[in-house]
From TrEMBL:
It is found in: Cell membrane. InterPro entries: BPD_transp_1_N (IPR045621), MetI-like (IPR000515), MetI-like_sf (IPR035906). Its main location: membrane. Keywords: Cell membrane, Membrane, Transmembrane, Transmembrane helix, Transport. Residues 94-311 form the ABC transmembrane type-1 domain. It comes from Halotalea alkalilenta. One of its GO terms (cellular component) is plasma membrane. Belongs to the binding-protein-dependent transport system permease family. This is ABC transporter permease. It is a multi-pass membrane protein. GO terms for biological process: transmembrane transport. The chain crosses the membrane at residues 12-31, 100-122, 134-161, 188-207, 242-269, 289-311.
Length: 324
């Protein structure tokens, strides 16, 4: 296990290094931030001073080496627009995005797995057909349209839930958290539901497929022949084996929820990192874009590592193959 973990950490470090190359050089061939930051009537001398102050007059490989050396010390650059370090700027917004991602993923698990289990155990019942039909709707409807529909129904027509903002927050370790207050939950519910809809459909269908695949297996027949209670067979043998592929998908979906919650955050004016990255792209604020992408890559690497560890714990065959 220790050798495997060290090997995975080395792979993760290699991936991070490659991503710094791709992200840094990729962004520096797109546009020129000086054209946005400097006024149109600025003189050539003023433009030259601005270029020198941002370090853009240096060759690209020197800029990359400086970025890499600073990144190893936790400095991912200075925002051109906000005039503050990019990393703290993003970290200020990340708690809001994390709350949204955790709530959406939690809803997907709490709703998707039980419904998928029902649809898999009783595939010919009417409610199973309704569940599978509903999952198609979850896949088909665009996120922005569902968000607007939720606002129209629950905020405008019924007046039950607020449509924008994050609500009241509680400060912990210098960061505001809204899930600790009732008002925060009222603001969180609609964007989380909007973000979770596609993931509920995905988890539901994967769970159903897993259950249908596991039920005809020999060990399930032996368990039934030995007189083990149906609830125990479903809870231990069926559900546990169904969860193995689900863990991978849910882990990756959690990462994508954090990285690509931009549309939902924009519709509900949720003050997360997604809104910040849209503004930074419009202003070509390279340090913030690079820092955001690097944080996203780190999150995916960490999530993949956690998923692999969980996979080894859930499936003994993986441990045996690794040890062989």
């Amino acid at each position: 296990m220790t050798v495997w973990l060290i090997r995975r950490l080395l792979q993760a470090a290699t991936i991070l290094l490659l991503m710094t190359l791709i992200v840094f050089f990729g962004l520096h061939v797109i546009g020129n931030p000086i054209d946005i930051l400097v006024a149109e009537d600025a003189t050539q001398a003023e433009r030259a001073r601005m270029i020198a102050s941002l370090g853009l007059d240096q060759p690209l490989w020197i800029q990359y080496c400086v970025f890499l050396a600073n990144a190893l010390q936790g400095d991912l650059g200075q925002s051109y627009v906000y005039n503050m370090p990019a990393l703290p700027l993003i970290l200020q917004r990340l708690p809001a995005t994390f709350e949204l991602a955790f709530a959406a993923t939690g809803l997907a698990i709490l709703i998707g797995i039980p419904l998928g289990l029902l649809a898999g155990l009783y595939p010919d019942r009417w409610f199973a057909r309704m569940i599978m039909g509903g999952s198609i709707i979850g896949f088909s409807l665009p996120t922005f349209w569902v968000g607007l529909l939720l606002i129209m129904i629950f905020s405008v027509s019924l007046g039950w839930l607020p449509s924008t903002g994050r609500g009241e927050t509680v400060s912990i370790m210098g960061y505001g958290w809204s899930f600790l207050t009732l008002d925060g939950w009222r603001h969180l519910l609609l964007p989380a539901l909007n973000l979770a809809l596609f993931k509920v459909a995905l988890v539901l269908r994967l769970t159903r497929a897993g259950v249908r695949e596991v039920l005809p297996q020999d060990y399930i027949r032996f368990a039934r022949a030995n007189g083990i209670a149906p609830k125990r067979i479903i809870g231990i043998h069926v559900l546990k084996n169904t969860l193995i592929p689900l863990v991978t998908v849910i882990g990756l979906e959690f990462g994508s929820t954090i990285a690509f919650a931009v549309v939902t955050e924009s519709i509900f004016a949720w003050p997360g990192a997604g809104k910040l990255i849209i503004d930074s792209i419009n202003a070509l604020d390279r340090p913030v874009i690079v820092a955001y992408l690097m944080i996203v890559v780190c999150l995916f690497v960490m999530i993949n590592l956690c998923v692999d560890i969980l996979y080894r714990l859930l499936d003994p065959r993986v441990r045996l193959e690794a040890g062989a």
